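From the thread on structure requests for the teaching lab: each student submitted one protein with a one-line request. Submission from student K.M.:

"Model L-aspartate oxidase from Vreelandella maris, tokens only."
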Amino acid sequence: MSTPISDVLIIGGGVAGLTLALEMADHQTVTLVRPAQDDQGASRWAQGGIAAVLSPDDDLDAHINDTLIAGDGLCDVEAVRFTVTHGPAAIQWLIDKGVPFTPETDPAARYPYHLTREGGHNARRIIHADDATGRAVVDTLLNNVVQHPNITQRNDLTVVGLLQDEQGTCRGAYGSDTNQQWHSLIARHTVLATGGASGLYRHTTTPAPSSGEGMMMAAELGACLMNLEFQQFHPTCLFDPEGPAFLISEAVRGEGGHLLNEDGQRFMLALDQRAELAPRDVVARAIDAEIQHGTLGHVWLDIRHLGKQAIHQHFPTILAHCASRGIDITQQAIPVVPAAHYSCGGVATNLQGATHVMNLYAIGETACTGLHGANRMASNSLLECLVFARSCARALLAQDDRTPAEKFQPPVFPATGPLPTATLSDIRQRMRAIMSQHVSIVRSATGLHTAQEQLKALLNSLEEVESVLAAPEGKRLHQALQLARLTVLAAQQRHESRGLHYTTDWPKQQPIAAASTLTLQDLEKRG
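Reply posted by the TA:
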């Protein structure tokens, strides 16, 4: 089945996808594919806030400098400056859309909304909606989307691939509905806003993270993937083996939280002058080292000294969730562990979100703009979603050629059949275990080689399943395994430690920082 041609097809309904849809819809027709359960994406679970220069006491160069330091020499300076410069206008756009940011109660403050501070930032520049900023932004934007007559939402489809004509131009996407029927979505322009690849790992900060399927959809059409080896592990995820993934926001440390080892002693003070507010890669490695030396399997994050009133005021969501798991954070320290959180790498794009494939764009976490370098600084993620979605919209609207699109006949897709779900689930869990063991916070050449061999064996076993690529769940798992192998390959080729990529074999940095780029052909060459 096919749908009418849309001007813009957006795959993904987080902050990036919703922002682009709203920016385009006053001028062009938009089809937005997003899950029926809108809490699946990472945007909704973002707690801390959005970084931008908003206070008169802050300045753009300071935010730029902090971002460059956190990125450990690998940031694209032009992308950083572009993002930071366009940040204040993006925040004002959200305010105008009705996002209920937390107001400032101090009458002496010079900005009307409360600004907090997080790791890597040398100023208070994080605007937030209590400790549930992502939810507030997504709910507000989604409410605007629902009311817009030019936006068609498709909540019934799982997109698994992109369409391409004989000239190599992207012509839309295809996916399956809940009845296992295939649909083609034809569009003048296709934009991926499908999120990152944290789902490649066993422990994550999002209950249902993507596994980089959107990145592989782009790669299948010939797009370049950049900096895949830089997977960020958030230092503080709630240690709760029996419960769902739950992030303990960076803002908890920004407001004065202390990290304690098993003996109840702060350990960051001796490692970095920024202590708990050091960049995430530094803090995550420190926590990982403490866990390896201890017996509990976690460290403690203590905010009891902040007082009940401050905890209730700043962290109501965290307070409530921890209480539901039997932890009173006003009286007890919080058990925390690092968990896969954010993909700094992804589909290589320019400042307008354009990929190497004609008419294919990528925004948000699925893209690699060069902003984050080797390590994303706290709360620059939603900022990137906003700035690049708006930039992408401007670029698409500037292409005012409204001549009728050439006819495009999508391929005929094979009928889907039943798959052994237990087998697919087992392969996915084994993939996650391999990545968590060998491609995590601390890596080694031996471990990466082992991971590559084991992932290749898993991919071979998956391809032996009859008709696996003709079914959505089989196709998506195949994409995840391919991306896992490309991630390992990127790590194997980086003979240094930089930012989020730390290897015991090359603990020092190369004198010149260089981004990594890979295509699907690089993986095919390895067999």
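TA comment: The chain has a mean pLDDT of 92. The chain has 14 helices and 18 strands.
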